[in-house]
Amino acid sequence: MAKVRQIVECVPNFSEGRDMGVIKQITDAVESVEGVKLLDVDPGEATNRTVVTFVGRPEDVAEAAFRAVKKAGELIDMRRHHGAHPRIGATDVLPIVPVSGITLEECAEISRELAKRIADELSIPCYCYEAAAFKPERRNLAVCRKGEYEAIAERLIDANEAPDFGARPFDERVAKTGCTVVGARDFLIAVNFNLNTTSTRRANAIAFDVREKGRPEREGNPITGKKKIDAEGHVIMRPGTLKATKAIGWYIEEYGIAQVSMNITDINVTPLHKAFDEVCRCAENRGLRVTGTEIVGLVPERTLIEAGRYFLAKQHRSDGIPKEDIIKIAVKSMGLGDLRPFNPEEKVIEYLLEADKKKHTRLVDLTAKGFADETARESPAPGGGSVSAYMGALGASLATMVANLSSHKPGWDDRWDEFAKWAEKGMEMQEELLRLVDEDTVAFNRIMAAFGMPRNTDEEKRLRNEAIQSATLFATEVPLETMKASVKVFGLCRAMVETGNPNSVSDAGVGALAAHAAVLGAGMNVKINAASLSDRNRADAMVAEADRIAAEAEQAEAAIVKMVEEKITK
Q1: Could you tell me whether strands 290-296 and 189-195 are parallel, antiparallel, or unpaired per DSSP bridges?
Q2: Catalytic residue among 60, 92, 440, 507
Q3: What CA–CA distance (Å, rounded) separates 544 from 417?
Q4: Alpha carbon of residue 441 to chain centroid
């Protein structure tokens, strides 16, 4: 399966919302880290506070966060700060949020390391909250920020109230910067569900039906009756149906409709598609309809992928299709384009990260003709390794097509899930082989870069030779990986020949031929690169493994072609 790129989001809140010059210097510090993308800057004059959002790889985001905290500590003097929002420091709160390829627990560890670095290198005391909290009660941000900036001097010398990192008596440095609360939390989705009504009261009723907090229990009339109180004097609440959600109803004059406005605070507990279906159910119970959904801000790709797969499964349709098609199903199913066109390129975090890259920098982003033309040019890359990986991907795609056709074949409705699972496996194979198309060219470029290193001194010659050997080893490993990925395609092709739609059996056969060509072509690249390795034991072992895979592929292809011939000549 293709490796998932690790991406995290950081949403620091800085105690300055009026001086745009200061804010710009802080965001410049964020953008000074290569690989980090600044997504949003939201200053508030009344709160005197700015919320900044940026994303990237974990190590890059942590560095950008550190630089921003440093710059804020230099520019913001908390002794002169006044605003409507609770605050404890120049950088008030600093959450790290998992987006893709990384767990909340990993983000918590990143947060703790960042908090320690801020305390050690910048002398700014740090509390850790949410998933990064060392004490259970400090999961709550309000506990960490208790008493706000004005209470810092007293808390610093109290063993029970002292920060997790950087505790020391109150001094001029702390007086200026205050403290910072660093943590990790799940991704929060802000979403509005559009209703075919103008009634705020009815929208609120639906919000109370679903939100975790629910609604107050009342005596007699459920709307106007007296609220029930428990023995301790607290209002008794009847919980709603959706965990990890907050919601209210409101009227939007711009659109002339009422909405259920919801924050989903943990998308692992309540994914977007589950919230959509439940709001639809509760709306229908009250004689209303959800006409569409409005996502406020950005979402991770997986939110839409999970939704698309959910709705495809409800239709008994395969989700072993390209991601773009799955996302289209999600957009249509939840009416994401109800109020305005919904463009995933502008709403999905991962796609925004890719937007800054030059178009068609990857071979797999080229058209079919573009790839063929690029291969034909006099440059040695892309070469046989990349083409081999692409043939393997085409083999996986053909077999996946047969699985999808079989899943949707009339009269085979009871077998849709069987073939859908095969199609999903096929898409995983395709994605892995497409990754290797560009990986092989990267490997070649590494060799060329190594050969271009200086060799004027003995030390330079030694370093150059080491770089050449390292690059050559990588260039041998990549086609071997292509062979391993391509040989898996035969299992899918064979299954489709044996059990798939008989009208498409030849397509599965062609898939096997493509996979065999991929294995043989990649094997040639293993051998030609292994010949240049000085570590002969390792080189011989890799060649032996390549020969074993090639023999396995030859037998698999012969068996599949024989089955295809028997089926099409009956």
Answers
A1: antiparallel
A2: 440
A3: 39
A4: 26
CA distance 570 to 566: 6
Rounded Cα gap, residues 474 and 313, in angstroms:
41
| pLDDT at residue number 358 | 45
**Contact status, residue 515 vs residue 557, Cβ threshold 8 Å:** yes
Catalytic residue, chosen from 19, 81, 85, 316, is 85
Neighbours of 230 (CB within 10 A): 10
Distance CA 542, CA 531 (A): 11
Query: What DSSP element (H or E) covers 568?
Result: helix 536-568
Q: Is 325 a catalytic residue?
A: no
Check the CA dihedral 44-49-50-56 and report its sign: negative
Distance in angstroms (rounded) separating the CA atoms of residues 16 and 22: 8
The letter for the amino acid at 342 is F
Query: Cβ(81)–Cβ(71) under 8 Å?
Result: no
pLDDT in the model for residue 229 = 87
Residue pair 385/478 in contact by the 8 Å Cβ criterion: yes
| Cβ–Cβ under 8 Å, residues 77 and 61 | no
Q: Which amino acid is at 457?
A: T
214 φ/ψ sector (left φ>0, alpha ψ -120 to 50, else beta):
left
Is-above-0.85 flag for pTM?
Answer: no
Residue at token pair 């305390």: 119
Mean pLDDT by 10 residues, the chain (570 residues): 75 93 96 92 85 93 97 95 87 94 95 98 96 94 92 92 94 95 92 95 95 89 82 88 93 91 92 97 97 89 96 94 95 94 89 65 85 87 92 97 93 92 95 93 91 93 94 95 97 96 95 97 96 95 97 97 91
Catalytic status, residue 234: no
Report the alpha-carbon angle 318-319-320, nearest 5: 90
Q: What amino acid is encoded at 328 in this protein?
A: K
| Residue 403 CA to its chain's centroid (Å) | 27
CB count, 10 Å around CB of 143? 16
> What is the CA angle 485-520-488, rounded to 5?
25
Phi, psi of 148 (to 5 degrees): 55, -160
Quote the tokens at residue 83: 């605003």
Q: 257: which strand partners?
A: 252
Which secondary structure element, helix H or strand E, spans residue 434, and what is its range? helix 416-451
User: How many other C-beta atoms lie within 10 A of the C-beta of residue 398?
Assistant: 27
Q: Which two tokens stand for residue 77?
A: 């003097």
Pairing of strands 126-130, 180-184: parallel
Find out whether 86 and 147 touch, Cβ atoms under 8 Å: no
For residue 295, the tally of other CB atoms under 10 A from its CB is 18
B/e letters for 415-428, b = 16+ CB within 10 Å, e = fewer, are ebeebbebbbbbbb
Contact 216, 208 (CB under 8 A): no
pLDDT value at residue 2: 47
Residue listed under structure tokens 């573009």: 370
Which token pair is 407?
């899943």
